[in-house]
Design goal:
heterodimer; A: 198 residues; mainly alpha; 5 helices; B: 354 residues; alpha/beta; Rossmann fold; two-stranded antiparallel ribbon; 13 helices; 14% strand
């Protein structure tokens, strides 16, 4: 038996799941139409979209976990390196107020320096960028699922609301432009009438 | 057998006192929500969408002829420039006889996600400048930009040099590739298109994350230890809570504006290369030919000096001044140093040209 990569296995299960979701959806569409009515009809007919999104969420979660693990690995490695440096620089337990103050100063300075070096590094920036990107993809799937629910109760989806926002923004720009042109015309007209009076 | 404690009793005393301070804190100190950040009296003279133009009431009988408009940053609110009477940037300028206006960008909502650089530069900022010119019957004003507000003000000054008599750039975000801060590292690796497409505006939570990675132990632990240690020091506590409240109130940034800011400044670095466009117009820094005063903080961990200073060398002005101060991003505008050194120097420079 050939060894399969994790990606092949994921693709196999994704295909398997989609296949059965599609088949069940097709097989069930007639009885579903018969039994669903009113607002719930839209939800029933869009339910396939929810299963597709859930499958993709699962895929994204695997990627997300990879980057989140790396994120915490980088933090914990930096922590233990910084702690080692503190142990070398301040090996004794502080016994009085002065010693405690200087120990605290050493601890904070070393930890701040080491963590700033990490946050400034290419490896941190790259991993953090990918982590946020995966988080955004998860949010997108959640948005898509919410849209299915919104449509089932005849409410506008995020995309439809965005269209309205875009239209308002463009209209506002046009109105401002017209107002400026009108103001300029008025000023020119006023200047003209002042000249005529003279 | 006699047992001896190795610890100095004073240390134990300090720890007990610290614990007592934590317990007593709610009895001694107001909750941040109960504190008002409005300090110097002002009038709201113009409102467009969510933006407000504030006009501060004068503190001197005579005032310099040229009014000053401050374009505050897009991160947090304008209150830091007027955080408390003895550290107020605005109040200091008023007492030096300047006529001060401030542009408050407000708090954008999802509806504002399509607002872009053009809206901010040629819309809100230009409308404020035009309003002040009409109101004060002057042809030109002095303009000050702080942090990201200076990026907007810089773009404005190149496009409308006829309206700006003097330009003051305070910790301006200009050369993204030279910026050595953690913020620029995160910005360079950000998929900003995806963020804007999926979320819309830049959420405040992202900004709070950025704050948390700046000196995390000094800012996340030491600062609060000092707060509880000094809980009986009214002046210290008042200042601490005001700054904390200001830090915890950052509005979202409109998606389209945020996208262009991250791409053009941090990722492609177009502004300093004179390759940036706003509303279809070319931003050429050489067009800044009026007197310019650039203020940079050596210890700035939000906008590094290397990111701000190139503006001084890129502009076309002959009358230009670059000042560096031994402080940080906030220290430059709201500290004893700003009151005793930064503002007197700025006031002198501006008075000679106003």
């Amino acid at each position: 038996m050939e060894s399969q990569s994790p990606k092949d296995i994921t693709d196999y299960y994704k295909h398997l799941s989609l296949f059965w979701t599609d088949i069940i959806h097709l097989m069930a569409s007639k009885p579903q139409a018969l039994t669903s009515m009113g607002p719930m009809r839209a939800f029933a007919s869009n339910s396939k979209k929810i299963s597709t999104e859930l499958i993709q969420i699962n895929e994204n979660l695997m990627e997300f976990n990879k980057f989140v693990t790396e994120y915490y690995k980088q933090l914990s490695e930096t922590w233990s390196e910084a702690q080692k440096k503190v142990n070398v620089k301040a090996p004794d337990v502080p016994h009085d107020v002065e010693q405690m103050e200087s120990f605290k100063r050493i601890w904070i300075d070393i930890f701040d320096n080491d963590f700033t070096e990490l946050f400034d590094s290419e490896k941190f920036g790259e991993n953090y960028g990918k982590l946020v990107s995966k988080e955004l993809e998860l949010t997108k799937h959640w948005n898509n699922i919410s849209n299915v629910i919104l449509q089932s109760v005849n409410l506008p989806s995020k995309e439809e609301i965005d269209e309205v926002y875009k239209e308002i923004h463009s209209l506002k720009k046009r109105v401002t432009k017209l107002e400026i042109e009108l103001k300029k015309k008025k000023e020119t007209k006023n200047e003209g009438s002042v000249k005529n009076e003279k | 057998m006699k047992s001896e404690s190795k610890f100095d009793p004073k240390l134990i005393e300090e720890l007990i006192k610290f614990g007592k301070n934590i317990i007593d804190a709610p009895k001694l100190v107001s909750a941040p929500d109960e504190i008002s950040l409005e300090v110097t009296p002002h009038d709201i003279v113009q409102e467009i969408d969510k933006t407000r133009l504030l006009h501060y009431r004068p503190l001197t009988e005579k005032q310099h002829k040229t009014p000053l408009l401050i374009s505050y940053a897009l991160i947090n609110r304008y209150h830091i420039l007027d955080i408390q009477p003895e550290k107020s940037w605005v109040r200091n300028l008023l007492s030096q006889g300047f006529d001060v206006y401030m542009l408050d960008w407000g708090s954008p909502t999802s509806m504002d996600k399509y607002l872009d650089f053009d809206d901010y530069v040629n819309g809100y900022l230009d409308s404020s400048v035009e309003f002040i010119k009409d109101e004060t019957s002057t042809e030109k004003i002095s303009l000050q930009g702080y942090c990201t507000g200076a990026t907007i003000a810089t773009a404005y000054t190149t496009l409308h040099p006829e309206s700006v008599k003097n330009y003051i750039a305070t910790a301006p975000v200009i050369d993204g590739w030279r910026d050595t801060t953690v913020i620029s590292n995160l910005a360079k690796h950000m998929d900003v298109d995806k963020m804007v497409e999926i979320i819309g505006n830049m959420p405040p939570e992202f900004m709070y994350y950025c704050f948390s990675v700046l000196k995390p132990f000094e800012q996340g632990i030491e600062k609060y230890v000092n707060f509880f240690k000094n809980i009986e020091n009214k002046k210290f506590v008042d200042n601490f809570l005001r700054v904390e409240k200001w830090l915890g109130d950052t509005p979202p940034i409109p998606g389209a504006l945020f996208r262009q800011w991250i791409k053009d400044i941090y990722q492609d670095n177009l502004l300093i290369q004179n390759k940036m466009y706003v509303g279809g117009s070319h931003i050429d820094l050489k067009k800044i030919d009026m007197p310019i005063f650039t203020q940079v903080a050596v210890g700035d961990h939000l906008v590094s000096p290397e990111c701000s200073m190139p503006l001084h060398y890129a502009v076309g002005s002959e009358d230009k001044t670059l000042k560096m101060y031994p402080t940080g991003h906030v220290g430059m505008i709201a500290s004893s140093l700003s009151q005793n050194k930064v503002l007197p120097e700025l006031g002198k420079w501006l008075a000679e040209r106003s």
